[in-house]
Amino acid sequence: MHALTSLLALTAQPGRAEQAVMIALCLAGLAWALSRRPWHWLRRDALQHGWLGALVLLALLWTVRATLPGGLVIQLFGATLMVTLFGLPLALLSLFVVDLVSWLGLGYLAGQGWAQLDWALLWPRYVWMGLLPALLSAALQGAMRRLLPRHPFVFILGHGYFTAGLAALGAGAARALWRSYSAGGSVLSLPDTLIAVLILAFGEAFLTGMLVAVFVVYKPEWVVTFRDEEYLGN
């Protein structure tokens, strides 16, 4: 009862409502992922190396961003790559670890101590860069598995390039609409927003598609969504 009262108090204050929504979304996504017990995939010795490498890669990726004129920020997600390599449940947990580690890294680079970090920003970062693009990626990949033929070329193009680009477009557009709504008006002009989202989507598609193609060919044991019996006819 005390926790419910605290949550209602948060939502009653300007700005706190947005924070409460972000926290609720994060906890719901993480609770679902934990309920699936995805860590059984990590019992594979070969997959453990790929998973640890992916965590390091994405933690570095989340600390690098480009700021365009007008304050537009371009920052790659890597969420589609995690979903393709490890499946949605493990990807959601891994992306939260990446969010936490990269946030600590950004604070260290800025010379901030543990107590100086704005921990409230941890939750929206996870929603917009991890949870939402991961969910969109899983939905798109599920539709592709049902509608498209099972072929390695289709897998690489569909799960790598197209899914990453479309998920980034969807997540970027949703983030822009949310910011516009929460700010009580349009923060950025539509052309500027579209430029930022398109640049982000192109980068996501290129990076994810390239890595998925490499892993499918050279390290298929790292890609749990790619099964030889389905895509190679074995």
From TrEMBL:
Q: Does the keyword field hold Cell membrane?
A: yes
Q: Where in the cell is it found?
A: Cell membrane
- The source's domain of life comes to Bacteria
What keywords were assigned to this record?
Cell membrane, Membrane, Transmembrane, Transmembrane helix, Transport
Specify the protein's topology with respect to the membrane: Multi-pass membrane protein
Q: InterPro entries from the entry?
A: CbiM/NikMN
- Where is the chain membrane-spanning? 46-64, 76-106, 126-144, 153-174, 194-218
Q: Name one Pfam family in it.
A: CbiM
Q: What is this protein called?
A: Energy-coupling factor ABC transporter permease
Species per Swiss-Prot/TrEMBL record:
Cupriavidus basilensis
